[in-house]
Design brief:
By secondary structure, the protein is α+β, with helices and mostly antiparallel strands. The protein has eight helices and 14 strands. A hairpin with a 3-residue loop joins strand 7 and strand 8.
Amino acid sequence: MIDEVGELLREAAARAVLPWFNQLSAEHITEKAPGDLVTVADQQAEEVIAAGLRRLAPGSVVVGEEAVAVDPRLLRRLGDAGRVWLVDPIDGTANYAAGRRPFVMMVALLAGGEPVASWILDPVAGSLVSAERGSGCWVDGVRLEQPSTMPPVGRLRGAVPLEYLPVPVRAAVEAGGDRVGAVLPGQHCAGREHWDIAAGEQDFAVFWRTLPWDHVPGTLLVRETGGVAMRLDGSPYDFTDDRSGLLVARTDAAWQEVRAALLPAG
């Protein structure tokens, strides 16, 4: 099923995402909530993906970001005992709506309420990363290896979008920024941040919003390459918990070092 879902994402990209890229007008972009954009491409892509997933796994449940915006009760289905698909048709919608990259398309498969597989497609580059619990993480057929060593804390690089953090947390990160190698502004695309951590392009990322469609696919990639995703208090990331704050890092040691450097007061 790994290949079939990858091909479905490519189909949805070709039919609903790439044709609208840089072609959107004001009437094609709306707000679900203040500052939370949705485009006609998000909606069309989710329809294509959801229909395809139901064909691949009859009887399964699809929980899509845009469907939840219409009916929030769908979130309750994430804990179902059977197979549940979690879909983010375009992650990085603000980038997409502005005609810039990165943006990605994401799917995760849950079984018994636990993530067992995930897929992230960069539709412009045509590159696909996928992971299966216990079997590793692959980018375009090449397995991503776990890091054998990590740089010291003074050379760790990671994304922290400061504008989303509450004032006390932002102040702590700004004060501790010189203890790490680089605090990057972030790409406004959670899936791309997770992908870059799994691939070793950066070492960590801090997120304040922790919506399941933003983080379930990517945190599985990170875990399958030896990384960790935990709340800022050190508890495991549970996508059914709506608390804010998530720190993702390439290794547990890196997580501990970044946590101590950027948020020493807890």
